[in-house]
Design a protein that fits this description.
This protein is of the alpha/beta class. It folds into two domains: 30 residues; 128 residues, Glucose-6-phosphate isomerase like protein, domain 1 (Rossmann fold). It is built from seven helices and four strands; from the N terminus they run αααβαβααβαβ. Strands 2-1-3-4 form a four-stranded parallel β-sheet, with helices on both faces. The longest helix has 18 residues. The two termini are 19 Å apart.
Length: 160
């Protein structure tokens, strides 16, 4: 779990040092081969002209939006652009789907409308255990949509 609450202190210099030390530990655990694999998936999706969907809850929803924005418009490559969509961004759609079908279905129902075989779904989650992400990943596997999980801690259920 997140350790920031354990290192917090009102002494800003002490907290900053502890926080940077914590980040070093986290960065040392990152497998750069996993990063390479993720980059290869999104570059392949661009090459094939398929859509990359990003999703997440809470702060991960903001990360999904940021990823989609940077890939779709930050690259400024209009000859062979990334076709990217964050399915966390349309609040009326999210609230309608959540209200009518349940929060667990807010992503899967969008994928059923927008997704097609060969697309890529990227789920971003700290715990990896969100029911709405898990159901979207299950649907994606039956619809032949490739999945990538960006997680923290032990990866949770979505890592499988």
């Amino acid at each position: 779990m997140n350790q920031i609450d354990k290192i917090f202190t009102k002494d800003i210099e002490k907290f900053s040092k502890a926080y940077f030390d914590y980040l070093k530990v986290i960065f040392d655990k990152v497998d750069v081969a996993d990063i390479r694999g993720f980059v290869e998936v999104i570059l392949d999706a661009r090459e094939r002209g398929v859509t990359i969907f990003f999703m997440g809850n809470g702060g991960s929803a903001a990360t999904a939006s940021h990823f989609a924005n940077d890939l779709a418009f930050g690259t400024n490559d209009y000859i062979k652009p990334f076709k990217v969509m964050s399915i966390t961004d349309n609040v009326p759609v999210l609230t309608a789907l959540g209200n009518d079908y349940g929060y667990e279905d807010i992503f899967i129902r969008q994928l059923k409308v927008y997704g097609k075989e060969g697309d890529v779904l990227v789920g971003i989650s700290a715990s990896g255990n969100s029911a709405n992400l898990l159901s979207a990943f299950e649907y994606a596997s039956t619809a032949k949509i490739k999945t990538v999980a960006l997680t923290a801690f032990d990866g949770g259920k979505i890592k499988k």
